[in-house]
Structure formats: C-alpha cells, structure tokens
C-alpha cells in the first residue's frame, strides 16, 4: 500500500491568484530606540562597526597590493582575483550578526566580507577557552588581548588564503574565491555564480532532517538569481512536502535565509533595466512559495536594518517557517575586479549617490551622535583596524608557500564511515522493510542487489538518505528504490523535483554538514544538467578547502544504452567524470559487485559517481546474504588467459567474457579483467596481466573518441612497452551519437563479436 | 659568478667533438693556461686550455663523451660557488652556415686532405654524398625484441608472422627452436659478455668441452664484430671515395737516379747539415710546381683556379689513418727552413697536436712511402688539388749508364693527375722536371 495517493478533481471555477505583498524598506527603528529597548548593546554596535571597517581595510589592501602600495607587504607579488565588495559591508556584517554564531553561511566569489564577518561574529561569541584554542601559541592574557590576537589571526588566515599560503584557511588551495572555515560555520565562498545556493539549501535540509536548529544564510548576488540552479534551489527549499501532511511529524520548512545581495551588477550586466524583467528581485520568491518566502527588500547600506531583517528570519527559521528570502539593496563601489574601470556601464554620479549613504560612515556617525562611542574612539578604532590588518598581512606575505610536491595532496580523503556514531545507529523502521528474495541458487538481480545495499546501509547508518526523481512512492523509474520509502519514511526517501542540478547540489550541502546522501540521476545523460554541482562542487571541495571538509555523496546514474532511447538517454559518460579530479568513478558489472561496491560508495567519504547499467538491472548473480563490501581500486580478473589481456568494465564485461569464450575455440586464450572502478584505477593488475600475455585490448561502451579506454592504453604503453607483442587496441561505441533505431544502435554499440575480432587482429 | 667551460669550436665545419681525456677533475685548482682536457675532432686531438683561474667546480662530460661544440662542459669559479647541476643547452653558433655561392666557388685556397674546411668543400664541386638506402626498419614487437635481446640473438633473420609481417614473440620462439637453441650450452660468463656486447650467439662457434660455448668464443666474436670507424677514418673514407669516383685519374711514373743526391746528402751530413731525403724531394717538387701552373691548380669541373703560392701538403701516416700537414707558401722557404718546418709538422702530426688550420689549404700533396720498401704505388688525389706525387723506396737497381750495366739507387715517382686540367704531356714534363732537379747535383750545391 503506497504512502500517499493523489486524488485531485478538475475544478475550473474562475478565481484570482493573490500574489500578496512584498514590503520594502520597512525598518523604521532608530538606533536610540533599539538601544533603549535593549535590542542591541553598545558594544555590539561598536563590534559591527569594527567588523565593517575590517572588511573595508582588508579589501582596500587588495587594491593597494596590486599597485605595490601596501607597505607591510612591500615586495610581495599578489597573484589572484580582486573581486572586492567595498560598499557592501553592511550586508555581510548585518547578515552574519543577524544569525547565531553557530549558524552557517555560504558565500560568493565576492565573499571576503562575508568570510571576515562570519569569522568575527563567531569569534566575538567564543568563550575564553575557545579563543585560546584558536591561537594556542599566543601569549595574550585576559579576554581583551586574547580577542585581539584571535581577530588578528583571523585576518592573517584570510590574507594567507588570499595569498595562496599554507597557513591560509584552506592551506592556499582555495584562495579568496573558495575560502571556507567550517569551524565557524562558513561553508565556503563559491566562484561559480549561484553555485553555493544549492549547497546552502542542502545544508538547511540536513538541519531539518537532523532536527537541529541551525540556520543557513545564503549570500548570493543579483546575478545569481537568473541562474538555473538558484531557481531550482528556491523551488526545492519551498517544497510542500517539507511542511504539509506528507511531512507527518516533521513539518518544518527549510531553515535557510536567501540573502539576495542586489548590488545592481552581475559582472557588469545591470539588474536594473537590462538583464532582469522585474523591478524588484525579491519578486523571484513569489514564483516559488505561496507565502512569498516572507520576502522583503532591505536597506543594504544600513547594518541595523539588515541585522533586524535577518534576525527575524532566523527566528522564523528556527520555528520551521523557512525558507526566507531577503533582497538586500546594496552597492558595489568598485568594478567587478580591478581591471574593470566601470565607466562603460555606469555613471560616476551614481557612485557618488551611493557613497553618500556609505554603511560605515553613516553608522559611525550614528554611534557618535548617540554617544555609543566618541569621535576620538572612532579614530583610534580606525588606527587599530589598520594596524591589525597591516601586521596580519605582513605576516601572511612572509609565511611559507605550500610545498610544490604537495600540489595534489588533499585530492582524496581516506575517510569513511566504518564507525557509525551511536546516535546514528538507531534507525527507525517506519513500516515494513521491502522483501528482497533470492532464487533457489541464491541469486539476485543487479537491481535488487543495489536495493539490498541501500536497505542495509540505511539500516546501518541514519545519516544515509535517498532522494531523486520518482524514487519514493513509485520506487524509481527502474524500481530500484521500491519499498524504501515504506521502510524509512519520507524524511529519508523523498521525491525531488525534476531539478538535477539541485539534486546534486543539495547533496553536496547535506554531505558537508554530516549527512550521507545517495541521490539518483535517472539517466546518466542528466548528469550533464548537474555537471557544475558534480564536477565543480562535489569533486573539488575537499581539495579546495585544504581537506577541511569531506563530501560523502553518492550519485547513482543509470546508463540507458541498448534500449533504443536515442541520443539523450543512452550515453556512457563515466569518462567525463574520470576527468574530474576528486571524483571516484565506479561501474559494477555484476549483482555481487553492485551490492558490495554501492556499500563501499556509501561508506566512502569521497564523492562517488556510481554508474549502473539499465541493461543489467535484470541480470542475475549470486549475492551472499552476509555482510560484505568491495574495496575501490581493485580490479577483478574474471577469466584467466595467456594470449590477450582484455580490460573492461560495466556491461562490456559480459561481452568480453562471451568473446573470450568464442576465442577459446580458436585457441586464443583471453584474460578478462573487470576494472570495477576506473577512478581509482587498478593499473597494476592490468600491467601484470599484459606482462604475461603481451597483448592488450581495452573495451567499454563509451565512444572511443577521448574515452577512458585511451587512458588505459596509454598507461599500458608507457609502463610495459617492452612486454607488448602488438599495439594496444581499444574498442568502444562508434564515435557518434546513440541512435534510436535498434538496427543502428546494434551497429553503434560494441558486441562480443566486435571485441573478439579486435583481439584476433592482434594475433 | 662561475665561468662556463665551453667545448671549443675548432674550425667552421666542426659540429661535435669528443672529449678524449680530462686533465683536471672536479675540485682541482685551475690556473689560466692549464690544460683542462683533450678533444678529438674529425681532424685531430687537441688540448684545450683554461681561460680562467679558480677551482673546477663542475664537470658535465666524462672521457669519451661526444658533444656538440659550444656545449658547456663544466664550470670554473670560486670554491663553494653555486653552479648549475645541469649544463645549459649548447649555444647556437652565431654565424650562419656557409652558403654555396659563386663567390665561394672562386675562393683561391682549397682543401687539404684528408679533411676539408667548409669553404673548401663549398668550393669543390658539389657532390652529394652517395645515397645509402636507409636500413629497412625491422618490424618487431617490443616483447619479441626483448626476448631476442635476453636470448642473445639477432632478430634480423626471423620471419615475422604477426599482423603486417611483424615479428612477434612466437616467431622468436620458433626461430630459437629451429636452431635447437635450448641445446646450446654456454658458460654464464660467456652469456654475460654476449649480452653486453650484443653478440648473436647463434653465429658463434663453440669450442669448449662438449660443444660448450666459452668466453673465448664470444671474445672472438666480439673482435670480429663490425666496428664503427673513427671520425678520421670516416672522413678519409668519404673524401677519398669522392675523389676516386669523381676525379678522372691518370698516372705517370719516372725512375729517378738518386745515387748522386744521396752521396751529396751524406757529404753535407758529414759537415753537419741535417737534411732528409724527403727534404730534397720536396724542394724539387716545390721548384717544379712554380714552373707548372696547371699542377698547382684545382678545378670544380667548370672553372680552373690557380694558386700563386705553393702550399705543399705532406701526407703523414699515423697508427690509424693519415693527416696532411701543410707547408704554407713553401716557395719562400730556404732548404733549412723547409727542413725545420717539415720536421716540426711531422712530429706534431704523429702526436695528434696539429691545429686544424695547419691541415687545410694545400695545393699539392706529396705522399712518401720510401721507408716502406715499395717499388712503386699510385696515390689518390686529395679533393681540391689536381695532382699528388707518390714517392716509392729507393732501391739498388742494375741500370744501363753510358752503355754499361751499373748498380744505381733508383727511386720511382708516380704522379697521379686530374685529367680534367692536366694532360699527359704536362704530367710527363712535370715528373721529368722533378727527376732532372733531383739528379742535378750542381743545383743542390747552390741550394744547400
């Protein structure tokens, strides 16, 4: 009995859709009233001002560095981006102060401000012991001095990251555009416009699932709100199933605040009157949620207004009323980068008008006027900020560069979930588990073997969750996940919208904060819809953060080749992901391997592209009932032989075995090796075999042009050339597009006969 | 800053040189003018002196290395100074390669044998090197090749049965079987030597007990193995082949009665005059060349170039090869000066110490085999000249003199002539003129 059956009736009675209202600039409180009502403390005000000043000082330093005019870094050649956010300090500080110190943010390529603000907010909230831990070598005594040391260290680590130094937050691997500090809930700046939005959404989804009160503030600019994955993410966050009857006991909207920082320019593309069709970008929210995501427009030059709006949103999020969307109306004084003179697309008068409401000047004046601080104190604060930055930057410039030998260190992690924390071991079975029956010989189909792996791993570890298109009630397009919703409930098995980028991107965010999502891409072809999220996000974050985060996500992608589904549903694309450093690429060929490898994939802390063959879903093989896993990077010699080594993976393994059988009759002895994973690649097993046989054929269903088969052929020739008795040959699909016609597709894909012929041609 | 030690370019054509022997080792102190190492070009072995003073900090080449000229082969500097671990790439010579042009073709000075300067080569008729068919590349799989090497056999005779006739491993196996390879008994040391020297053991005759192949068998095979010619031999081979193929030679022989001149030499010697027989012959030749323009000329087949000075080449045999030092402007030398020059050049030629410039530009060559007991011989003209004079041994011979048979010291001179510019008459007159001078004691009395 399914969980939920729709039962709608046609109803064409006329009515009017009420799109509600979006309030703009409704914050009217004065600083005096906020102080007197104790909504803000004097020290907090001074802290916010100082944080904004720190950001500006830092970014002005970048400008000076480029012309060699920053004395404490004299002689240091800064090489890297210069995306400064000067003018936007109130949105960064207001946004980070409005959420709690242990809440999370994601940021953008223009994210120095967000990163500094998040760090400062977290640091100021730390206990003395926590502060000490950040600067264990400091001799500072007393909270004031310790705080100063930690703030200086914060700027130092930020500078060092910008300068590509080993001491940076990400060990110089990420740089300013990918800076992250997971210890303070900074989940990463993102150099792909909009790339961080699904990550924030996924992190919020994880908080909802784990029933934590963590809120994620997602900084993204006006430019991002024209990007597909951002719009997919808004839809995702607002899905009814998180809050309606389907959510049963966990009716809780995603605790995410989308901070749409409208600085009016993408790179140079104008949000006003040019690249958008709405006057107010907050209207984006109207399209995704009946409550308009509580959208409002906030004065982004007023730190108190931003703080107030974000505080309100964070409170709402903690009550399950998320998601929230705030358009923060702000302004970028400089161009996209220092190479952008701005005069091609905007007027100097415009800049002057915005500078007249500068967030630092106006707030400082308010503080002086309200006697929160004296003018003299402001001057000394300026000096303090400048000096702190100079010391930190000078130290960073002189700090050691990473060792060249470590250039690809941190690409992969050895981490795994062999030890499941006790709290995640308790897994609730909502209803009944699916029954997976073996035949008399103890065989399971490839499909059921995968299902059994999912079932076992979900029972073993409460952090494993499954989502994707139609995976819940319907059990997936190929019925692989059928019964798992019934077993684990909709919190752990749910249908996603048809948003491949959001499927893959939210999984990255959820994985970053501790879940182990297994998401399904119905057809591998659809992975291309999500290529940024797989290749730039999932694959890269471990490295780009200098190994300070792991992304344990599994992308299950089914290859449709052989079914007559044509060019967009039939591609064998594992080669593409093998070319993306940071990914593991697995492609099992048997039910036994499918189960053991999927279990390994789920437990591995690296992102895994787990490729499945739809043609093999019904293929049966013996699968033990007892627990087992199959390590990655260990090839399986399927058949021993002495004349030719036939290297293969995926469904081609079966054609290879048939070819070997046929060739045996012709007295040609073929050794068939199933690689099982192409990343990591067990080249040693291949080389040892080739040393023995002297001949090598590489077969897969990828088209041969630029295929991974070429990588193997190349390595064989490089490493065991002297053992070759013939050139290495390879065979794949023809260098074309998969046709629909089954006659053509039969000609397109390599079969056992083709493989046998290639082997024979070497004899 | 350390100074680079450069492999010198000793002559325009020299593109690479072999370091024969280092006289200094890394760490040695070097004074300006100290001999650093000896190099062998295609012409000679030369000593290279240091331009710098200091410590030899780095040496990049070992004895026997052949390197492009102008390569950096080491560094001299202060003790402890940093020098590169790797030599920089060889400096590209600033001067462009000489072009063959009409002007060059008219250059008056021409080559000496056996090696010619590039100018001389350009001046000489452009004869392309014989087109030697590139050896047919053996089509063999890497695995089969490896097996052949490990079995100490040459795969050249193996028939390939793989795709496109490639020799594959089973062909080697079949080939070995056909020779009953497994029955070959070979001592381990013999096998080791065969591997190192790439001897095909199927071609080696086994002489050990019970048909065992022993190290002596392999050593014999090593000795019989074709050896690459030395650079000098290659040049001799190339130049003389070119001459003998392209220059129409003819030969004119005369018998010279040396009895009187030998007696005259003894007489001078007893008075303290140190002249060799060669000195007399050379002097006679020099004087005769001044009389016979065509013989002191050369041709490229279309033009004839005469040289106003007689730059006489003297072939000097070495252990393996020969060189031809040149007595420049020999017509202006006195007998004594001639003697001293010949002695110096011959001595330095035998010790390989001639400078390249001392071996080019001759206009005529004398090849003297008098000391080897030969009746007569024909020499091959050095490219860039029109004739060469072969001097045989002086032999006591019964001859008719004044209608009486008497015993005289007879020496045969054979002139090899380029028939393109020198005809029989001139050739005959030339050798007879030399003969007359040698037999004319009155002449020698005025010269010595």
Describe the structure.
The complex is a heterodimer of chains A (763) and B (448). Chain A has 763 residues and is of the alpha/beta class. Chain A has 3 domains: 23-399, Thiamin diphosphate (ThDP)-binding fold, Pyr/PP domains (Rossmann fold); 422-622, Thiamin diphosphate (ThDP)-binding fold, Pyr/PP domains (Rossmann fold, 3-Layer(aba) Sandwich), CATH 3.40.50; 636-761, Rossmann fold (3-Layer(aba) Sandwich), CATH 3.40.50.920. Chain A has a 7-stranded mixed sheet with strand order 9-8-10-11-13-12-18, sandwiched between helices. A 6-stranded parallel sheet of chain A has the order 1-5-6-4-3-2, sandwiched between helices. Chain A has a 5-stranded mixed sheet with strand order 15-17-16-19-20, sandwiched between helices. In chain A, helix 2 (42-66) packs antiparallel against helix 11 (359-369), helix 14 (446-460) packs parallel to helix 20 and helix 16 runs parallel beside helix 17. Chain B has 448 residues and is α+β, with helices and mostly antiparallel strands. Chain B is built from 12 helices and 17 strands. Chain B has helices at residues 102-105, 118-123, 142-150, 169-178, 188-197, 215-224, 231-246, 259-270, 277-291, 335-350, 424-439, 441-447; strands at residues 3-6, 16-22, 29-30, 35-40, 45-49, 54-59, 66-68, 72-77, 249-257, 297-299, 304-306, 312-318, 321-323, 326-327, 364-368, 387-401, 404-418. Chain B starts with a strand and ends with a helix. Chain B is globular and about 80 Å long.
């Amino acid at each position: 009995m399914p969980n939920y059956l729709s039962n709608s009736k046609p109803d064409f009675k006329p009515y009017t859709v009420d799109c509600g209202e979006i309030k703009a600039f409704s914050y009217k409180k004065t600083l005096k009233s906020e102080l007197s009502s104790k909504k803000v403390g004097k020290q907090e005000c001074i802290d916010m001002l100082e944080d904004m000043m720190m950001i500006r000082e830092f970014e002005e330093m970048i400008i000076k560095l480029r012309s060699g005019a920053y004395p404490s870094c004299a002689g240091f050649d800064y090489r890297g981006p210069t995306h400064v956010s000067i003018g936007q300090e109130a949105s960064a500080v207001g946004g980070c102060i409005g959420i709690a110190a242990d809440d999370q943010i994601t940021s953008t390529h223009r994210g120095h401000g967000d990163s500094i603000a998040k760090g400062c907010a977290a640091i100021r909230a730390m206990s003395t012991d926590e502060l000490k831990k950040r600067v264990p070598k400091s001799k500072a005594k007393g909270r004031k001095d310790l705080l100063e040391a930690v703030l200086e260290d914060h700027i130092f680590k930020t500078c060092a990251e910008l300068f590509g130094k080993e001491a940076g937050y990400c060990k110089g691997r990420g740089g300013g555009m990918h800076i992250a500090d997971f210890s303070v809930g900074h989940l990463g700046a993102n150099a792909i416009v909009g790339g961080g939005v699904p990550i924030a959404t996924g992190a919020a989804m994880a908080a909802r699932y784990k029933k934590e009160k963590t809120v994620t503030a997602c900084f993204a600019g006006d430019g991002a709100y024209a990007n597909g994955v951002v719009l997919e993410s808004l839809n995702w966050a607002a899905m009814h199933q998180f809050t309606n009857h389907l959510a049963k006991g966990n009716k809780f909207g995603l605790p995410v605040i989308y901070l749409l920082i409208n600085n009016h320019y993408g790179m140079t593309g104008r949000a006003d009157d040019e690249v958008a069709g709405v006057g107010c970008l907050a209207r984006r929210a109207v399209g995704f949620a009946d409550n308009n995501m509580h959208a409002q427009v906030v004065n982004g030059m007023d730190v108190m207004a931003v703080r107030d709006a974000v505080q309100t949103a964070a409170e709402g999020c903690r009550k399950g009323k998320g998601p929230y969307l705030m358009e923060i109306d702000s302004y970028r004084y400089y161009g996209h980068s220092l190479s952008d003179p701005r005069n091609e697309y905007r007027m100097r008068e415009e800049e002057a008008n915005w500078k007249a409401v500068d967030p630092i000047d106006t707030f400082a004046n308010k503080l002086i006027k309200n006697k929160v601080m004296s003018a003299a104190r402001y001057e000394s604060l300026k000096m303090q900020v400048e000096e702190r930055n100079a010391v930190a930057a000078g130290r960073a410039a002189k700090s050691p560069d990473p060792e060249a030998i470590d250039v690809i260190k941190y690409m992969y992690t050895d981490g795994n979930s062999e030890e499941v924390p006790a709290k995640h071991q308790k897994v609730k079975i909502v209803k009944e588990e699916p029954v997976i029956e073996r035949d008399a010989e103890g065989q399971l189909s490839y499909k059921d073997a995968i299902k059994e792996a999912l079932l076992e791993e979900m029972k073993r570890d409460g952090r494993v969750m499954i989502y994707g298109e139609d995976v819940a009630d319907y059990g997936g397009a190929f019925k692989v996940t059928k019964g798992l919703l019934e077993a684990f409930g909709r919190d752990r098995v749910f249908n996603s919208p048809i948003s491949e980028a959001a499927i893959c991107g939210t999984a990255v965010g959820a994985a970053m904060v501790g879940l182990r999502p297994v998401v399904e891409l119905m057809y591998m072809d659809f992975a291309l819809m999500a290529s940024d999220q797989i290749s730039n996000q999932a694959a890269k974050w471990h490295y780009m953060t200098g190994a300070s985060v792991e992304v344990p996500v599994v992308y299950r992608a089914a290859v449709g080749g052989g079914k007559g589904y044509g060019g967009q549903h039939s591609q064998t694309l594992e080669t593409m992901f093998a070319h993306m450093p940071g990914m593991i690429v697995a492609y099992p060929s048997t039910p036994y391997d499918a189960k053991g490898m999927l279990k390994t994939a789920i437990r591995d802390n690296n992102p895994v592209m787990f490729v499945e063959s739809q043609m093999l879903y019904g293929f049966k093989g013996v699968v033990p009932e007892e627990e087992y896993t199959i390590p990655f990077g260990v090839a399986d010699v399927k058949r021993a032989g002495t004349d030719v080594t036939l290297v293969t993976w995926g469904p081609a393994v079966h054609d290879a075995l048939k070819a070997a059988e046929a060739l045996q009759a012709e007295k040609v002895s073929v050794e068939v090796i199933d690689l099982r994973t192409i990343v990591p690649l067990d080249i040693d097993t291949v080389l040892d075999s080739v040393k023995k046989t002297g001949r090598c054929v590489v077969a897969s269903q990828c088209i041969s042009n630029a295929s991974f088969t070429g990588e193997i052929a190349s390595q064989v020739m490089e490493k065991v050339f002297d053992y070759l008795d013939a050139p290495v040959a390879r065979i794949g699909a023809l260098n074309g597009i998969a046709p629909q016609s089954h006659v053509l597709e039969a000609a397109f894909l390599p079969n056992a006969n083709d493989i046998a012929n290639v082997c024979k041609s070497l004899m | 800053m350390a100074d680079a030690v450069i492999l010198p370019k000793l002559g325009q054509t020299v593109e690479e040189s072999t370091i024969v022997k280092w006289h200094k080792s890394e760490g040695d102190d070097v004074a300006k003018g100290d001999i650093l190492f000896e190099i062998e070009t295609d012409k000679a072995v030369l000593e290279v002196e240091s331009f710098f003073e200091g410590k030899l900090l780095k040496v990049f080449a070992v004895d026997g290395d052949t390197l492009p000229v102008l390569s950096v082969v080491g560094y001299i500097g202060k003790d402890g100074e940093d020098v590169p671990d790797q030599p920089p790439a060889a400096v590209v010579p600033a001067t462009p390669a000489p072009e063959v042009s009409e002007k060059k073709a008219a250059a008056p000075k021409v080559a000496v044998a056996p090696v010619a300067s590039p100018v001389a080569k350009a001046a000489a008729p452009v004869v392309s090197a014989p087109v030697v068919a590139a050896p047919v590349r053996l089509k063999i799989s890497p695995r089969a090749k490896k097996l052949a090497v490990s079995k100490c056999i040459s795969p050249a005779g193996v028939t390939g049965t793989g795709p496109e006739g490639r020799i594959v491993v089973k062909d080697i196996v079949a080939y070995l079987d056909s020779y009953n390879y497994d029955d070959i008994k070979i001592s381990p040391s013999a096998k080791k030597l065969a591997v190192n020297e790439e001897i095909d053991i199927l071609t080696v005759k086994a002489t050990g007990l019970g048909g065992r192949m022993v190290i002596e068998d392999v050593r014999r095979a090593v000795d019989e193995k074709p050896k690459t010619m030395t650079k000098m031999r290659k040049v001799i081979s190339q130049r003389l082949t070119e001459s003998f193929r392209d220059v129409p030679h003819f030969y004119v022989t005369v018998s010279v009665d040396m009895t009187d001149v030998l007696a005259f030499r003894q007489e001078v010697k007893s008075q303290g005059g140190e002249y060799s027989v060669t000195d007399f012959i050379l002097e006679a030749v020099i004087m005769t060349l001044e009389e016979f323009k065509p013989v002191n000329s050369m041709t490229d087949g279309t033009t004839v170039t005469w040289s106003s000075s007689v730059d006489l080449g003297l072939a000097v045999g070495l252990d393996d090869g020969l060189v031809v030092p040149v007595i420049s402007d020999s017509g202006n030398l006195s007998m004594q000066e001639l003697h001293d020059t010949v002695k110096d050049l011959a001595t330095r030629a035998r010790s390989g110490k001639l400078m390249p410039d001392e071996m080019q530009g001759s206009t005529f060559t004398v090849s003297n085999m008098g000391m080897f007991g030969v009746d007569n011989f024909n020499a091959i003209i050095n490219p860039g000249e029109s004739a060469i004079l072969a001097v045989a041994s002086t032999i006591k011979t019964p001859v008719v003199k004044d209608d009486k048979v008497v015993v005289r010291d007879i020496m045969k001179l054979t002139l090899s002539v380029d028939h393109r510019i020198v005809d029989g008459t001139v050739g005959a007159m030339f050798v007879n003129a030399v003969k007359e001078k040698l037999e004319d004691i009155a002449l020698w009395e005025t010269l010595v």
